[in-house]
Amino acid sequence: MAVSTSFRVRTLFLLALASAAYAQSLTRWTRPTTSPVITPDRNSEFHDPVSGTPTRWEALHTFNPAAVVRDGKIYVLYRAEDDSGEAGIGMHVSRLGLAMSTDGIHFQRQSQPVFFAANDAQAAREIPGGVEDPRIVEAPDGTYVMTYTQWSRKRSAYSIGIATSADLSRWEKYGPAFGDTGKYATLLYKSAGILTERIGDKLVAARVNGSYWMYWGENPIRLARSNDLIHWTPVEDASGKPLVVLDHRDKQPDSGFPEAGPPPLLTTDGIVVLYNAKNATDSAITDAKLAPRAYSVERAVFDPHDPTRLLARTTEPVFQPELPFERSGQYAAGTTFAEGLVLFKGKWWMYYGCADSFVGVAVSDIETR
After folding, report:
1. pLDDT the model gives residue 10
2. pTM of the full structure
3. Strands 265-266 and 271-278
């Protein structure tokens, strides 16, 4: 049966209404503390399997966290940089530490990293440089799936790696999301959030139209799909290139570029995508209300039945650098770089990296359906 023009118009109108009704969800964030919740620790020591020597694995910076709720507690996997290498972003070795909290603010950390580069099948992609910027989702079977950045300074190459765990401490690596061979084997790509849905008080990886979905990349953000949460295929446009779903906008907080944030959330009103927005440096296109190069958090809503179709997008940050520890450190332009989103004690909790140096947290009332 042919679909009438009036039906299409009515459908678009209803989607617009849904998007408008959703306008305030995950946009009102407050800080439950005015201090970072995870900071560097120069006393933590780890016997590095690559160098064979002790290293102060979280001595310089602790930032860019993933988060998940397990057994009524919040667990955060955070990126930690050691004090090796030259001064500068990307010049140290990164590993992932694990911390647990019963209140979302005060954390107990494990003394050893739980995820790191080693002499394994991923060594060429992770040495020297390490593993960075995780996001975590829970699979329907209870397994945890992590996306992270594989960084090799030797090859000047990076890719999205996939790993799984049953307990958040012991992880199995599967290699790059788009595979080691084929069309995307040499693609440089990072940052990825897998679509989730709320099941009770848990956020679980969600299928739409039979597939799992992953919003990925920076400058711009694209989309991929999977049948198993491990092997991913980019969604392509008519020319056979990865489809762009979010690009930069002049005079907006994402005038530099957008970058994937925490795992997106599927709701009845739409797919809510919190993403990280970098402000440009060119005065002709930058958002004058933010510092040049500053990272803030924006929000987009996509069609819940079509993850490629953008319905709405904020023009002002929903969260941005304000406190001193968010505008200092090794990225002094200012950073609130969101990577973790969980539902805990009746609120949304967003964990973010501060100036590439610390971990911060913000909370929001539950308004989603």
Report:
1. 45
2. 0.93
3. antiparallel
